Amino acid sequence: MLRNIITALTKLQLFLLKKFKLLYVRGSKEYVVIKVLKPGVEDILVADLNCVYVVARILEFLNPELSRASLNDIVEDIKDSMLKEVNFKKEAVNIEAFRTPGGI
């Protein structure tokens, strides 16, 4: 059940988080993708993921068998990866590293 909630929340946050634009570069045969971050989304993302974390902690407290599933770790991993998605400066560094030979 919690996995379904996390999956639904992740899909919703990804929908809110990004809008992609595919543009054709005039004078070349290349396309570029522009990712736009809506204002305030990062704050909403942090608040929602903190709520999911609290719910996971409560569920593990109420049902100790759930602690074997490491719900808190799963939520933290999701939170970390989603917050990296809104850090465009870090993402730009990573893109450049992949472009250069011998990068990451």
UniProtKB/TrEMBL annotation:
UniProt superkingdom: Eukaryota
Designated name of the protein: ABC1 atypical kinase-like domain-containing protein
Location of the ABC1 atypical kinase-like domain: 28-99
Cellular component, GO annotation: plasma membrane; plastoglobule
Pfam families: ABC1
InterPro entries according to UniProt: ABC1_dom, Mito_struct-func_regulator
